[in-house]
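Hi team,

Filling in the usual template for the complex we talked about on Friday. All components are listed, including any nucleic acid strands or ligand strings, so the model treats them as one assembly.

SUBMITTER: L.P.
PURPOSE: interface mapping
COMPONENTS: two
RESIDUES: 362
SEQUENCES:
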Amino acid sequence: MVVKVRGILLRFTNYESSIEVEAPTVLGALTELTERYPELKDVLLDRSGAVRRTHLVALNGEALRPEELDRAGAEDDRLDIATAVSGG
Amino acid sequence: MPRTTTYDLLLDSSFFSPIQMQPLAIGRLGFNAGARWLKEHVCSHRDLVYRHQVGIVLWAWELHYVEPLGFHAADEAQVEVTARVRGPRTQLECRMTITGPEGVAVDMRAISVPLALSGDAALSGAPHALPDAIVERFEEDELEPVPYRSEIARTRGALAREGRLVAETAEPFRIHRHNCEVADQWFWAESLGFAAGGREELVARHAAEHPEVRRGLGAPVRRIDATHLKAYQFLDRGTVSTTAYEWDGSLVFLHDLSLADDGRDVHATAIERF
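RESULT (copied from the run log):
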C-alpha cells in the first residue's frame, strides 16, 4: 500500500508525502506507519488507539469509517490520511 | 456598549501599494487586532488554543475602503476593534476600523468558525459551538443571535445574470510556509494575495483587447468579500480562476481558488469591486 500524507501531517512523517508500507489491511498499514513515525502516532490516534475523528482515512478515494479500518489492502492500493482543518 | 480595543498603528510602507492599503496587510492587521481584543476582554489567542482547546478558522471576510489613506498621509493611524459571538455560538465576529487623517479609511469584518480541538500536536479540530467558559466572558450586547450571512453567493448570482463577462484567466500557485500559520495550514488572508495575483495576471494578459480591465491596476478597490470553505495546507498546489465582469457600473473580479488537480472543489472565493 502507498500511504499519502498531506500538508498539516507532513512534519510528523519527516516530510515524506508518499510512503510505501507492507500490510494486509488498512489498520495494519496505520500500525506500521505509526511505528515508523512515532510522532505521528500521538497525532493520528487517541489514547484508546482509535483514529481521531478529526482525521480522514480513505482507501482509493473512499472515506473509511472507524469500523471499516480492517479493510484488506493490496500492494498498489492508495491510502490517504488527511486532516480537514486545524485550529491554529 | 460593546467593549472596544483601540490603539495607534505605526504605518510603514509595506502596508501600502501606490494606490491604497493592501488587502493582505489589512487581513493580517485585522487578525492581530482580533487577537488583541480577545486578550484584553476574553483570553489570549494562545490560551484559547492550548488551554481551552478552541481553535478559530476564518470563514468570511468583508472589507470596505471608505476614505483615502496613503503612506504619504500620516505616520500613524488609529485602530478600533470590537468582537461578538453570533448565531448559536457558531461564529465569532471581529470588526476593525483603521482611521487616518481623512476619517475611517478601512472598515473590516471577519467572521470565524470555532473548532473543538482534539488535543493533538497538529491542532486538528472540528467545527463546534463556543464553550460556556468562553461565551460567559462576553457581555450581553456582544452576543448576537442572528448569524452573519456572506454576500458571496448573492453577488455571484447577480454577476452571472446581470454582468457582462469581460475576460477570464487561471493562474497556478503553491502554498509555502510563508503562506501558513502555526499548524502548516494556510493563513486565510493569503486568499486576498492570491486573488490580487489572479487579477494582475488577467490585466497583464487581456488589457490589450479589453483596456477597461486596466482599472483593476490603476484604481482603488472599493470593497472585497471573501469566503473560505476548505483549508489549503503546506505544499498544496492550487489554481486561482479569475473572471472580470462589468456590473452595475463597476469593474468586478470574481476569484475561485481550488486545488490544482480538482478545479470543481472550490476552497475559497473572493470578489473585488472597483
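MY TAKE: Chain B has a mean pLDDT of 96. Chain B has six helices and twelve strands.

Thanks, L.
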